[in-house]
Task: structure prediction
Amino acid sequence: MHKTPINELRRVCVIGAGTAGLSALKNALEEGLEAVAYEQGTEIGGTWIFSDKMPKDEYDEVHSSMYEGLRTNLPKEVMGYPDYPYPTEIDESFITSQQVLEFLRSYANHFNLLPHIKLQHEVIRVRPRLNDWEVYVWDHINDTCNPIYYDFIYVCNGHYTEPDMPQIEGMDLYEGKQIHSHLYRKADKFKDQTVLIIGAGPSGMDITNHIRVEAKHVYLSHHLSMTPNTTFMGNVTQKPDVARFTKGGAIFKDGSEERFDHVVHCTGYHYSFPCLSTDVGIQVIDNFVQPLWKHCININNPTMSFIGLPFNVIPTHIFDMQVRFTLKFYTGQRQLPTREQMLAELEKEQGERWACGYPNRKKAHQMGERQFDYYNELANMTGIENIKPVILKLMKDCGKKYIFELDTYRNHRYRVLDDESFSKCPL
Result:
């Protein structure tokens, strides 16, 4: 794509000013590049911003999925940036969404990022040219839309905006109310109602715990091989997957039938990049964003990177690590492999995933235990600083507790003692 040597390119466009976008902006600036972040909202923070706004119509987009009363399912000790941890003055480890938002604001202030962020500026189209990128930015304040040209693109628009609604027989026949968890905000809406919640991931379990306090009864439908702990939820009944909906409820795959007033689909999200033109060279099939090298660099146009696609990871740390990894190539400190080499590595890695029982494209960016090898690979390839061992140990200690110890796991306080060790004690 580019004729100019990559290390002579300077201008960086960051799409989004959430956790990933702030990291991309900060690290690019520290490398001496000319970076600007565009944020369509009125403030920084991305998905951590709470808003009770609901869509006006089917075409209206609500960006944030944040709901009232959310507390993190990871301790703040693993949620900070490598060079900017959460303040130890915050006593609890599992903090509120507002505390996360305040932390992101303090990060932006500490590294003087605000002068480089344009709020209420929406990137509506990105397309490659011969030697750079054409970026059309809609200035919502002045209602203008003009092209701006950049050498590098960081796509940091998050992936909690476009709901992944399941297709279940009879959904259109059901006469009760249905929403996706993306639009769930407050539990009191379900007071004295009977509710079906579909999905037992982090959001499904947490929303179940919120709603059951107000609801008359909650049915939790899922297909987890190990049964989540709901013994402390007296009015929650676990059910298998829904076979089909009826007018007043559903028949489940075990043949049982229940009636309910509301359905909350906690079924995940689509990866969506509506601002990218087709000639960017990226396609998304069942949440498999391809072709990407190391889950971030666009193989067809390698001056574009996607930050934050892997899941079941240490979010903030992997965002920061991916940015630092890509910047080693963008500043000429490391040389990118050829397109053929990158494609071969992608094919090899995906082949290993399918062979290990991950044939589902929706799990193409899932990490879990693989994340630790991934961090080592990025660090060894470019010489960037790896995630500290204590963070990895903390992460392992917290794994899956939102399913099996939901009533108690937040009642502990972690403390990082050094790069290798941590302490854990009851509140």
User: Anything to note?
Assistant: The mean pLDDT is 94. Residues 6-162+269-397 form a domain with the FAD/NAD(P)-binding domain fold (CATH 3.50.50.60).
